Amino acid sequence: MFVALCQSIAILLLIAIGHLGVWVAAYNRINATGFNRIAIKRIEILIVLTCAFIPLVLIGIELYRLGSDGLLKSLFPTDWSQWSLCTQVYCCLVILGAFVMTPDWILDRPFFATAGKRFEVTQRHIVNHPSENATTLEDYIVNPSFRKMARLPKNEVASLERNVKRLALADLPADLEGLRIAHLSDIHLTGKMATSYYRLVMDWVMAEKPDLIVVAGDIVDYAHALPMIDSVFEQMEAPMGKYFVIGNHDRRLETPTLVCERMESLAWVDLGRMDKVITHGSTKIRLIGNERPWFHRNANAERLRLQSSDSNREWRIGLSHSPDQIRWGHQQACKLLLCGHTHGGQIRFPVIGPVISPSWYGSKYASGVFERQCTLMHVSRGVSGVHPFRWGCLPEATILELSRQ
Questions:
Q1: Residues 164 and 182 in one domain
Q2: In terms of CB atoms within 10 Å, which end of the chain has fewer, N or C?
Q3: Of the candidates 105, 133, 149, which is a domain's last residue?
């Protein structure tokens, strides 16, 4: 009896894991599409409701057929031959899904997926709210509902991790040894976070004296927040320039290119529209941008790039809003690919890491350093967001310091 009971519990756990796994996978991947935001939100709601209602519907069917006593007897010990055909088929499918997905899901955990030998965190400073520069939460958060959520236990939405990571690249030219790149992503100017919060990022970046600065998309969410670009970005400077692409949240504006025009007016280079070639010492660096699947503004430059034989004579850095473009980065011979979009998953559990992440790869590339053949990819957890919660997943600003192995 005890063995049968344990078997029944194990199978029920497999059903639950398979059921949640299937719908979480669907949720992650719908967020990785280029659909418009309204369509994605409607599909998200449909996925969440389907995930919640399928078990309720199946349990209701079995209660109606077997009664409460009959349903319990069919579970403990296991005798599921009494269940309806639709319940049996669905349970078999999600159990199969659990067996198929679990090995890959385990290998996608941060412990296995990240390229641990390719980077080292040399500096790490966490600013908790209220910080040394602010005495109340109101100094960082303007929106009352955001402020209310920020007071939840362990919520890190108004905190910040500022770190320096040394990246090891085997074929790094001697000219680029020690090159410092400020990598920011997912700024999300919404009017909900105060300018003082963003200054915690930008002032620190300037104090670190990077050689170049990149912003990997999702700069502005609403048109009324466009003027914030000036106060947040105008004082940022770097000897080798400052570069950006836009992302899916910038598309929430009726005219997303208003973000680009505002950034360009502050001397930021729009890599979503054109490549930029710079020289450092005797090394030619080509900076290229990717905003897929939401924008294809650099398509002509990409075609010319693919036909070019310069990839062997220049060092390429790719800037992509989404880490889903890691294959593109490899095809374009990028030695370094800098991304954002996933916010680290927003919630990271102890040991297992993130579960929800808007990517075709699920939570594999939620944040960190990853390697695909000759391409090293850094995915930022982002500076801010539209959701007023983060647990175990601090917002992030990073200086990447390049070094040879």
A1: yes
A2: N
A3: 105
Return d(Cα 326, Cα 375) in angstroms, integer. 8
Overall number of domains in the chain: 2
Give the number of C-alpha atoms closer than 13 A to the C-alpha of residue 157, restricted to the C-beta side.
25
Beta bridge partners of residue 374, listed in sequence order: none
Check whether residue 178 and residue 233 sit in a common domain: yes
| pLDDT tens digits, one per residue of 313-349 | 799 999 999 999 999 999 999 999 999 999 999 999 9
Q: What's the whole-model pTM score?
A: 0.92
Residue 248's φ and ψ, nearest 5 degrees, are -65, -30
d(CA 201, CA 235): 12
Do residues 226 and 319 make contact, with C-beta atoms less than 8 angstroms apart? no
Instruction: Please write the tens of the pLDDT for every residue from 47-99.
Output: 999 999 999 999 888 888 888 777 777 666 566 677 888 988 999 999 998 88
Residue 26 has a CB neighbour count (10 Å cut-off) of 16
CA 302, CA 279: separation in Å to the nearest integer? 20
Shared domain for 126 and 227, answered yes or no, is: yes
